[in-house]
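TASK: fixed-backbone design
INPUT:
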């Protein structure tokens, strides 16, 4: 028997490792099974080049629990190790990983610093009092048994083992006894080992799919295969909209499938995230630094051996490969969207409700994506459901919808029902109004006005139709200055919580008698104030700015101005103003009650007047 001391400077390495690894103990199983997979793959390679002789036989890996002995065993039929190899790879190499770790993080005691720093084989000591390796190499040499109780002392001796391969036996320690429960092991296997390339058995059942869709050629896969794989990943989700099969081998290796999920308008925080794999070993689903932020809503799998198993945040941020991966994914996604848009615009438009969110978010946050997305970003008409690209919208509205600065004005509605009268008013003038009603649109509009310097967005109820496109034209009313002044006075009573500005204009006699509008700028500030910080509360506390535009050409004013009863005259005016506010959703509470009472009162008066005649 060989006895020795593992060559490591630090006397008691294990207590320290345990402390560091505290937050993610279950990765030990991932590490040991990865080693078993590596050993199996090595054997396959050696056999294929004739270095390993004879039948290779069944190569599956098995995980077994022994409750009485309190052991967990990982067995493979891979290359195995000779006594010299155990000495070299376990005593020296594997430990050097542990030592490197300790040197790197000496003196730090953040608990999960190592969450992403695997120690390979030695992570087994996080959960074990003692670890045994019983291994027989594919080479003609005796089987050996190595054991170590977590102190730097180990024992290495010959043993009997008939089959080629390695058993790693963990004597699970008291504080880790959860790993003696089948359910716990099953869930860890399911998390980390689901798509490993070698069959893995636990309790008589194979727990993995060794050839998941992303590892296969796109040409071999049907639509159904892609959808089935999606179901395998996210069993409870609706079928995805479409997917992108990634396959890159230069300048880095990357495969994967990204799915576009169906998103509802009021989408919840994403729980089904993209999963990152390294050679089919699950690494993490915290892919924040690898996938561009705006694509975090996508789902699926990315597999890259160029990303080490044990990724740390700081590593990822500084890694040039990660940047490249990021750019590549962005480009692929943009290309795919453009392809669908060009090939099947109808399908694209049908999916816009879900897609729009990605696209707009991408356009706001990534200039490279913006450049591409301008070709396929669409806006839907608020009245006839037609979709325009920006170019198409410009082409069909440029004659009418240019303001005095020559900017293209995009008229939009956020609520078809509430803004109905305004939409009608605008379309009657020949304008085109688009729907921008999703949760990202307010921010989108602000961002795009900065990026598209020749475009100005105006909400359809920001002003009366005649003024929506600021052309500095004026129109005269049939009223004389005195009458206009009289009307202005009548309308100028300030309701609580509002700041009214009254103007008299000569609009078409068919246009409404009064229109209430909220200036675009103030309304946007208020909308943003509703969701943001200190600057926000400044705007939030300001009264609502409302402009009442009185259409002097409307026939009702002839009646009102000649009305003898000043009480009735005031009531009529107040009712007209309230109707206008009502259409903007600004008439609430007591003001609304007063309006109703006043309306009833006016109707009753009419009734009396009627009987008198
Ligand atoms: P890594 O896998 O990153 O090399 P590990 O600490 O996980 O580091 O393993 C150290 C070495 O021990 C491996 O490179 C391999 O040579 C050897 N080894 C570990 N497990 C096995 C196994 N099941 N079969 C054969 N060799 C193994
Ligand atoms: Mg390893």
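OUTPUT:
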């Amino acid at each position: 028997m060989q006895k020795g001391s593992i060559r490591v400077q630090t006397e008691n390495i294990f207590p320290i490792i345990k402390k560091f690894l505290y937050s993610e103990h279950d990765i030990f199983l991932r590490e040991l099974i990865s080693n078993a997979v590596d050993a199996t793959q090595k054997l396959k390679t050696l056999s294929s080049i004739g270095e390993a002789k004879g039948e290779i036989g069944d190569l599956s890996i098995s995980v077994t629990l022994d409750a009485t002995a309190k052991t967990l065993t990982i067995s493979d039929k891979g290359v195995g190790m000779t006594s010299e190899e155990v000495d070299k790879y376990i005593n020296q190499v594997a430990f050097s990983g542990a030592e490197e770790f300790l040197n790197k993080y000496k003196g730090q005691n953040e608990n999960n610093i190592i969450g992403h720093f695997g120690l390979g084989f030695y992570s087994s000591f996080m959960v074990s009092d003692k670890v045994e390796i019983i291994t027989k190499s594919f080479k003609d040499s005796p089987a050996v048994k190595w054991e170590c109780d977590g102190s730097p002392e180990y024992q290495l001796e010959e043993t009997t083992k008939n089959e080629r391969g390695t058993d790693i036996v963990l004597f699970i320690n008291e504080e880790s006894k959860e790993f003696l429960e089948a359910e716990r092991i099953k869930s860890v296997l399911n998390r980390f080992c689901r798509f490993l390339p070698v069959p893995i058995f636990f309790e008589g059942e194979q727990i993995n799919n060794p050839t998941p869709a992303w590892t296969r050629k796109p040409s071999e896969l049907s639509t159904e295969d892609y959808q089935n794989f999606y179901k395998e990943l996210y069993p409870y989700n609706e079928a995805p909209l479409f997917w992108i099969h990634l396959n890159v081998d230069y300048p880095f290796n990357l495969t994967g499938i990204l799915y576009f999920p169906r998103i509802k308008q009021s989408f919840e925080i994403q729980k089904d995230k993209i999963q990152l794999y390294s050679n089919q070993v699950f690494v993490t689903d915290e892919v924040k630094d690898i996938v561009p932020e705006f694509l975090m809503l996508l789902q699926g799998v990315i597999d890259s051996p160029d990303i080490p198993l044990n990724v740390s945040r700081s590593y990822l941020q500084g890694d040039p490969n990660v940047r490249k991966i990021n750019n590549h994914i962005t480009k692929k996604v943009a290309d795919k969207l453009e392809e669908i848009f060009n090939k099947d615009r109808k399908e694209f438009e049908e999916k816009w409700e879900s897609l729009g969110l990605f696209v707009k978010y991408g356009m706001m946050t990534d200039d490279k994506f913006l450049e591409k997305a301008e070709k396929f970003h669409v806006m839907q008409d608020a009245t006839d459901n037609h979709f325009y690209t920006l170019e198409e919208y410009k082409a069909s509205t440029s004659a009418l919808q240019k303001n005095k600065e020559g900017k293209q004005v995009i008229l939009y509605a956020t609520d078809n029902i509430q803004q109905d009268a305004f939409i009608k008013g605008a379309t009657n003038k020949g304008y085109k109004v688009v729907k921008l009603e999703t949760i990202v649109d307010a921010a989108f509009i602000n961002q795009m006005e900065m990026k598209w310097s020749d475009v100005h967005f105006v909400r359809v109820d920001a002003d009366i139709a005649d003024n929506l496109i600021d052309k500095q034209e004026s129109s005269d009313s049939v009223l004389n200055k005195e009458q206009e002044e009289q009307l202005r006075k009548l309308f100028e009573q300030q309701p609580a919580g509002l700041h009214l500005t009254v103007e008299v204009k000569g609009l078409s006699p068919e246009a409404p008698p009064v229109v209430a509008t909220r200036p675009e700028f103030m309304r946007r500030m208020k909308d943003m104030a509703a969701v943001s910080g200190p600057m926000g509360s400044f705007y939030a506390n300001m009264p609502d700015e409302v402009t009442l535009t009185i259409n002097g050409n409307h026939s009702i004013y002839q009646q009102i101005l000649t009305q003898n009863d000043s009480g009735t005259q005031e009531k009529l005016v107040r009712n007209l103003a309230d109707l206008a506010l009502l259409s903007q959703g600004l008439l609430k509470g007591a003001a609304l009650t007063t309006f109703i009472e006043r309306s009833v009162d006016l109707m009753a008066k009419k009734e009396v007047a009627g009987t008198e005649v």
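COMMENT: The two ends are 125 Å apart (CA to CA).
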